[in-house]
Design a protein that fits this description.
The complex is a heterodimer of chains A (14) and B (259). Chain A has no helices and two strands. By secondary structure, chain A is an all-beta fold. The chains are: A mainly beta (14), B mainly beta (259).
């Protein structure tokens, strides 16, 4: 099963 | 004082129309180098990044004495821009500590000048740092072709698998009721550059993405003849629409990966 990831797990907060 | 005079209001209209459904409120960050906008959708799966450079030809005049942030409801901005003719020149104006953003629409023959003010909002948006990286694969294709692929495949399933390899790029969908696949080959023989499909490949990539978001991004199709898809395995895809004489509009979409 493929799950949707979030952008927060790839890019850090500025 | 901030004042930006854009020669074609249709460009700003198209930008806002392509954003307003996924991104409700957004901050326009204005500086002497131009206007940028970064915003995430409510689920933090998709992000837009707009860059309009002040030194490009699309601005007739551009002045920004100090950096300001203009928080705007994009639905409201869309309504205001509908009051402009497509050939109107649009001027955006705000004070240094603004509560209000002013839109001035000048018709081509200067016979009609309209002015609208909207109240600005305090928007607490979370900015992400997006590093400049080299992608494993960059696909350049006609923007209407990408729109058609997303629209066609979304009829059969929720996610598309994009498979980039040295012969070209494949788009596949597999749903409960059926499946579909579209293969695009590199077309270097086509006369017009905007009709070509090119694949710059460092490494093959196979990655799945939610079609709902890709279809939403393709609302920007009319901004550009071409679209660039930049992919690296297990990272967000970048869907970039160049905006002639202005800059670009990019969308980032987090991948779907095996749980």
């Amino acid at each position: 099963v493929k799950g949707q990831t979030s952008l927060n797990s790839f890019f850090s907060k500025k | 004082m901030f004042e930006a005079k854009m020669l074609q209001s249709s460009v700003l209209k198209k930008i806002i129309e392509s954003l307003k459904d996924l991104f409700a409120d957004a901050n326009f960050d204005c500086s002497s180098s131009g206007i940028t906008l970064q915003d995430m959708d409510s689920s933090h799966v998709a992000l837009c990044y707009l860059k309009l450079r002040s030194d490009e030809e699309g601005f007739e005049d551009y002045r920004c004495d100090r950096n300001i942030t203009l928080g705007v409801n994009l639905g409201l901005m869309s309504k205001i821009l509908k009051c402009a003719g497509n050939d109107d020149v649009v001027t955006l104006r705000a004070e240094d500590e603004p509560n209000i953003l002013t839109f001035i629409f000048d018709s081509k023959n200067s016979e009609r000048v309209s002015k609208y003010d909207i109240k600005l909002m305090e928007i607490d948006s979370e900015l992400l740092g997006i590093p400049d990286t080299d992608y494993s694969c960059v696909v350049k294709m006609p923007s209407h072709e990408f729109q058609r692929i997303c629209s066609n495949l979304s009829q059969l399933g929720d996610s598309v698998t994009i498979d980039c390899h040295k012969e070209g790029v494949d788009f596949k969908v597999a749903g409960e009721q059926g499946s579909g696949a579209i293969k695009l080959k590199q077309t270097t023989s086509v006369d017009k550059e905007e009709d070509q499909v090119t694949v710059q490949l460092n490494e093959p990539v196979t990655q799945s993405f939610a079609l709902k978001f890709l279809c939403a991004f393709t609302k920007a199709t009319s901004l550009s003849d071409t679209v660039n898809l930049s992919l690296t395995q297990d990272t967000p895809v970048v869907v970039e629409y160049p905006i002639a004489q202005h800059g670009y509009l990019r969308f980032y979409l987090a991948p779907k990966i095996e749980e």
